[in-house]
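Office hours follow-up: a student asked to see two folded examples consecutively, so here they are.
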Amino acid sequence: MPHDGLEQCKQEILTFTSSPYANEIGYRQRVHKSPAGKRKRSDVNDLAESSSFPAPLVLPGDDLALDPKYPPQSLLSWQRLKERNMVTRRRNVIYVAAPPDIDPAVEIVGSWIHPKNSKQKARSQRAGSLNAHPDVKDIVDYISAFYHGLPVKLLPSALVFGRWEDESPPSKSKASKRKGKDEAAPTSIGLRTASENIRIRTRASPDSVYPSQLNLDDLLDVAISVLPSDAYALLLLVSHDLYEDDDDIFVCGRAYGGSRVAVISTARYDPYLDD
């Protein structure tokens, strides 16, 4: 949905074909059946038909680039997958959980959603959630259009970042000594749901793009904990940068299909990181 103040997209050409690299590794997009019933393969420069899906880009390192002759998956084979979660009358709602609110007791956590670079941070803060962090209602609208026929709802119970029990607040004397300096970042924070407070581990960002990161596995535990009984799936959105393993620089999220949950971070999609 359009917003006043957003910059218009400057791209004037829509690309429906693969990158030139696809020719180098021998990938050809299947576009349609010929009158004889045989599938025709296209060159990357062929114009895509209106009935065809846009071709994959096929960039170096992509799965298709590593194995361009891997057999395609048909809709029928996907429907027959035993691992697929079926939509039922009891489980037919897609829920979207908005980024958690932040309790004033952990005010520092609110500063972690802005880039650490001073210029990027200033521009991101001026834009607010308008550009850097998508409006959750827009995401609900998008998912509703993509999964046409399934109801898509906001998770009714709010989530709140707060203090974790083992993290004691700084004393007044320490706070006064640190006046004018950066506040010490907690190693763990709590994420309060309607029924419990779940520990979320944190760490400093290895590449210093953001001040701190949140642990993805802990957030997935939260998503599983708050999954409504009538949910087909739940998407938990977070504005903070994430990590999963100690060796990660960052991760953008993960989906657990069997558990019907996904956690997605919008932090690395901040447009001002491109400058």
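And the second, which I mentioned at the end of office hours:
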Amino acid sequence: MPKNSYKTVGELVAHAEDPEHDIRPEIDHQYANDEARLHSIRQHRRARREEMVDEVTSLLGRKGGADGDAQTRAEARKRNISGVWGAQHGRSALQQIRSPWFILITLFTVIQMTRINYFVATIRTQYAHLLRSPARAVAVNNFFDAALPLGGIASIPLIGLVLDNTSTAFVLALLVAVATLIGILGLLPSAPAAYANIVLFVLYRPLYYTAVSDYAAKVFGFHTFGRVYGLIICLAGVLNFSQSGLDALTHRAFGGDPRPVNAGLLVLAAGVGVGLVVFVA
């Protein structure tokens, strides 16, 4: 990993535009007795700094021209719509991790990732029990295998539309609502409900993962994004090892019936999700 945190384009430009960088005490002290030489060196630094700023801004169209102005306005509009932009910006990673903003999204992510991955891993056995037919379960599984990558592609425009034009509170509420509906459909011993469940699931999955990273970027900022978002996913990944325990519970305690475990996860996710939405809103 790099020594310094990643910077956005705006942060890089702001850094380059700062005239304080023309002065470097650790080097300038060598020319303390030669004012002309010191002035010349600082002028060279200034010229180089301004050249770098011009190159970056001309490349990205940030200064001058309708394209640059339009891009700036569009980014400002997205930030204002989100309703959470900058909520934790400027705070250390440790301070951010201790905040409810981090704790709630981490709990929601842990539960949802467990539900998602558990469903992917056990879809055939679940529907073999629910539909009372191994053959119908295989058909459902085959449909799922085909729909999963197609759903990822089909959801791309939807994801951009939702994240760019709605508030973060609305996005989280949408995630909770759809996850709850998926959970309810997954409890029904019906083939139509199974196929409807899969269609919603394959569209929901990429939206969910993108929305979590979008939340982290808007709330915590890019300066600590790698550490904070990485910790969220790391904790979710570690706790996903509970899948084997859930599978054992399903088969040993409930005779292969997936509904008690799924219902428990559904209630838990809905409770945490509603708490997250209320807090953010």
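Two things to take away from it. The first helix runs from residue 9 to 17. The CA atoms of residues 62 and 72 lie 7 Å apart.
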